[in-house]
C-alpha cells in the first residue's frame, strides 16, 4: 500500500512539473517585438534584407513546406515592411513581420512573429541578413 501511494505521489509530481513547464512558454512571448537599431539608411537596410529574403524564401517550395516574401517600401512615409511566411501541409504555418523605419540617425528594425517554436530561429536569421549575412535556411 505504501509503495502504491509513493507511486501515485511521484506521478502527481511529474504531471505538475509538466504542466508548469507548459505554462512557462506563452504565445505572447513569441509576439513580443525584437527591436534593433542600425547606423545606416533604412532604404539600404530594407533592400539588403529583402534581396536575401527573396533569394532564400521565394525559391523554397518543397513537398511539405513553402516560403513566401511580401514586401512594400513606403519612401514617402519613411519605412518598409516585409513579411516572411512559411506554410506547411500539416498546419505548421508561421510568419515573421519586419518593419524597417527611418530614424533621425540611421534606422530601426522591428520584428514580430506568431509561432513560439520558429520565432527565435527566424528572428536570428533576419538579424543576420540585416548585418550582411547571406545564409539561407531550410524552410
List descriptors.
single chain, 139 residues, alpha+beta, TATA-Binding Protein, 5-stranded antiparallel sheet, 4 helices, 43% helix
Describe this structure in words.
With 139 residues, the protein is of the alpha+beta class. It is built from four helices and five strands. The radius of gyration is 21 Å and the shape is globular.
SSE topology sketch:
Layout: H1 2-24, H2 27-31, E1 34-38, H3 42-58, E2 65-74, E3 79-88, E4 94-102, E5 107-113, H4 116-130
Antiparallel strand pairs: 1-5, 2-3, 3-4, 4-5
Output the radius of gyration: 21 Å
The CATH architecture term is: 2-Layer Sandwich
Please work out how many helical segments DSSP would assign. Answer: 4
Side by side, the strands of the main sheet go: 1-5-4-3-2
Task: Write down the CATH topology.
Answer: TATA-Binding Protein
Q: Which sheet architecture does the biggest sheet show?
A: 5 strands, antiparallel
**Mean pLDDT score:** 76
Number of domains: 1
Amino acid at each position: 500500500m505504501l509503495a502504491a501511494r509513493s507511486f501515485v505521489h511521484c506521478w502527481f509530481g511529474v504531471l505538475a512539473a509538466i504542466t508548469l513547464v507548459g505554462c512557462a512558454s506563452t504565445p505572447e512571448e513569441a509576439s513580443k517585438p525584437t527591436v534593433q537599431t542600425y547606423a545606416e539608411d533604412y532604404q539600404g537596410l530594407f533592400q539588403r534584407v529583402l534581396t536575401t529574403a527573396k533569394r532564400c524564401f521565394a525559391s523554397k517550395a518543397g513537398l511539405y513546406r513553402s516560403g513566401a516574401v511580401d514586401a512594400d517600401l513606403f519612401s514617402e512615409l519613411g519605412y518598409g515592411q516585409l513579411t516572411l511566411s512559411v506554410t506547411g501541409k500539416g498546419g505548421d504555418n508561421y510568419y515573421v513581420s519586419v518593419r524597417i523605419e527611418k530614424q533621425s540617425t540611421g534606422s530601426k528594425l522591428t520584428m514580430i512573429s506568431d509561432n513560439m517554436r520558429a520565432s527565435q530561429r527566424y528572428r536570428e536569421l533576419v538579424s543576420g541578413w540585416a548585418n550582411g549575412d547571406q545564409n539561407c535556411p531550410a524552410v
